[in-house]
Structure formats: structure tokens, C-alpha cells
Amino acid sequence: MIRLAQSLCLSIFLAINTLAVSATQGWSAAQAVYNTSPSALAGLSLDELNSFGLRLVTEAYEMRSRVERPIADEAKVNTTSDAVKAVIHLYDDDAVIQRARLNYGLTKNTYVPNYTGAFTISNIAVSQTSNTVLVISFDVQLPNRTSLESGNVYSGDSMPRLLVMRWNERDKMWKIFSHGDFDAPRTFLCGANKDFMPEKSTFKQEDIELALQLLYKLQTASLNGTEKSVQSPGFQYVFASGERKTAPGKIRARIKERQKALNVEAIKSDDLLVMRFDTISSLTLDGGKTEADLRPRLTTFHRDADGEWRMNAAAIFTVTAKLAENVKCVDP
After folding, report:
1. What is the pLDDT confidence band of residue 2, given thresholds at 50, 70 and 90?
2. Geometric angle at alpha carbon 306, from 305 and 311, rounded to 5°
3. Quick one: which of 15, 29, 298, 321 could link to 289 by a disulfide (CB 3.0–4.6 Å)?
4. pLDDT in tens, 174-226
5. Hey, how many other C-beta atoms are within 10 angstroms of the C-beta on 31?
6. Which domains can be identified in the chain, with CATH numbers?
7. What is the rounded CA–CA span in Å between residue 79 and residue 107?
8. Backbone phi and psi for residue 83, each to the nearest 5 degrees, phi listed first
9. H or E stretch covering 212
């Protein structure tokens, strides 16, 4: 069970140092949160766990806000600045990031953060798959978000995010393993999906084959109504239109037929496997239909204590048909 913390209240009841953040502080300001050991989370209430996750996310966006803002008609922004490096340091070496406007995933070697500036975070929901793995969903409004590579300005709407974070024993800190980065629904529905195309990464074939096996198992369970058997503790999913499942029975999604996975990429890393692919969705969501179009998915699996791989997070870049009817297209 997961509760939603609805505000940006930064006071939490944890036995860790209180963190004061200023615009001039760098990575050292975030260390008190990111270096909090998994043992310190043992016994936390749901509200306390949500507050801890809120601090992780808030510190990440504080660091993103220090990235230099692109200025029109001027030289390209330095994408290897200390501020950019500080943001990339938050990611696991095996991380995969799925952006809404790309039909492939980004890795730590190809990912460049956007300039964000001001931000507002809401609806945080944190769950634990294991002592060392957290699943975090939230909404974030970024009115000034701008691509460093293209200069494109993104929608300033409040949009969902879905993270899987893992404790990195080598670096003694929490790091982002998978990151579902959504954009406004109209960018899906109205063709506003052009952006800078970063370099593609390469992936091991054996990781892709395992991911496809796990996906087949997921689809079988969804078709026969036994989907809970393939969900890890703390499982969450988020749709591009904002619907999310953060507790049993809140939202029920089920496929209507087996879906073909295209452009599959995957990384297996110890007890986690992240898979991104494209598919034409044929889903029902609480009995309603989703918009049928080719969209990305980012799915993360965890190898549970019994040795079985189960899904603990799914970022579904699909909007509901009901929402799609009400979206007025704008020029791309």
C-alpha cells in the first residue's frame, strides 16, 4: 500500500541530517539524502517513506536547475559542464532513460539532462521492492524546460515521472536505474514529437532475449487474469495521460490481445532488468480503451527473493481514448 504526499513539504521525520538547499550548493548539498543507507529506511511509516522520496526527487531537480539555460541564437550550451555531470552522477551505470519523443532508450553514456529552472513537484508515491530498491512516481511541472542539444522548449504542463532507484554499494548512494520521462499528451496526439536525436546505445542480445521472455510471461498473466503473480512488491505503473496504479485495486489495466514488441532494448544488472520497447497498445484501463498507436514502454523487472523475475515498474507512454477526444491539437 502506498500513500500520496500531496505537497512539497520538506520536513521529514527521519534520523538523517536536515538539509538546507541554496542555488549555489552542488552535489555536497544532496549527500545527506542520497547517502542515506537502506538500513535507515527500515521501519519508516508510509508517510515518512514518501517524504524521503520527495527529498530525493527535490534534490535531483535542484541540481537540474543549476544546468546552464540555452539562449536563442547563441553558441551551443556546454553539455559536459560540472552541473551536467552532477545530474548524470545521479544515474546508475546501467540506467535506461525513456523520453516521450524517442523510439529508443538513452543510457548514461548518451543521456544529457535538460535545463529545467523552476519546478513544482506533487503527488509523490514511494514503494519498496526490496531493502535496496525503491519505486517512485510523481508529477512535476517544469515551465522553463529546454533541451540543451536542440533548444526546444517543452510543455510546461505538470506531467508524471516514474523512477526505479537502487542503492549503489560502491558509491554508497541511491542512484536512478530507470526513468520514464513523459511529455504532454498533445505531443503524442498532434505530431509534436520532433526533437534532437541523441546517439543510440548498444545492448547485449542475451539481455534482450531474457527481457522478451519476461514480457511474454507478463502478457500471458494479463490475458488470463493472473497479473498479480508477475508483479513485485511495490509495483507501480504510470500512463502518459496521468493515470497510475500505486496500490492494489486503484486502477486496473489489462491487454486485450498479445502485443508485439518492436525496437527492443534491455540491460540486466544484478537483481534488476530494464526493458524499453515500442508497441501498439490494445489496453483496457478500468474498462475504458486506450488510444491505439505505436508508443514506447519502459518496464523494469526485479529478481525477487524466490529467484523469480517480476515487474516492479512500468512507464506506459499511451494516453486514454477519453482524454484523446478532448485534446485540441497545436502546431508541432
Report:
1. very low
2. 75
3. 321
4. 999 999 998 765 554 454 445 567 889 999 999 999 999 999 999 999 888 88
5. 15
6. 27-189 (3.10.450.50), 205-325 (3.10.450.50)
7. 15
8. -65, -40
9. helix 205-224
